[in-house]
Amino acid sequence: MRENRPSRPSGPRPDPPRVAWRKQMRERVLQEARVLAAEGGWDRVRVGDLALRADVSRPSIYKEFGDRAGIGQALVLRETEEFLRGLAAVLDERRDDLAAALRAGVAHALVEAGTNPFIGAVLTAARGGTDALLPFLTSRPEPVFTSASELLAQWLGEVAPSVAADRRVEAADLAVRLTISHMLLPSPLTADAPERVSRAACAVLGLPPGP
C-alpha cells in the first residue's frame, strides 16, 4: 500500500534567515533615510547617521546599496512604487469618465506633493536649488517621470482604445510634465491645474474635456 505522507503546506516558503535579515535591514535603512530627508533634505543625509539610526554597520549599507547615491535611488524607487499604486487606484475608480479620472489623478499628485513629508521636503529644497535628490524625482529617465507616463499611457490604452497609440503616449507625457511643473512651481493657477491638465490631455487625445 502507498504510504500516506503529510501534504506540503501551500503558499510561498519563508525566506531563509539571511535573506530575511537583508530585507529587514534594507527596509530600516530606507525608512530612516526617508525620515532624515523629510526633516532636513537629502543633502543632510549621511551614511553614518543612517547606520546609527537603523542599527546597521556602514559596510553592510555600502554592500547593499553601493553608495549614498544608491540609497537615494532606492528610496525614490520605493516612494515611486507607493505613489503609483495610489495613482492607479484613483484612475481606476473613474474608468467610465476619462476627463474626470485625469482631473482626479492630477489632484492626487498635487495633494501628495503637499502632504507627503518626503516629497514636500525634496520639492521645497529643489525650489532653492539645493537638493541633490531631485534628479531622481524628475529629470532622470527613471523612476518617476517615465514610470508615471507609462502607467498613464497604459491606462489610456484600456479606457480609450480607439485613440491612436502615439496620441495616447503624447497625452500621457504632456499630463505628467504639466503636473510636475505645478508641483515644482506652484502658482495662483495651480488650484485649477487638474482641470487645465485634463483639458490639455483630452485635446491631444481628440476627446471632449467633459462637463
UniProtKB/TrEMBL annotation:
Residues 46-65 bind DNA. It holds the Pfam family TetR_N. Keywords: DNA-binding, Transcription, Transcription regulation. Residues 23-83 form the HTH tetR-type domain. It comes from Streptomyces gilvifuscus. Gene3D superfamilies: Tetracycline Repressor, domain 2 (1.10.357.10). InterPro entries: AlkX_C (IPR040611), Homeodomain-like_sf (IPR009057), HTH-type_TetR-like_transc_reg (IPR050109), HTH_TetR (IPR001647). This is TetR family transcriptional regulator.
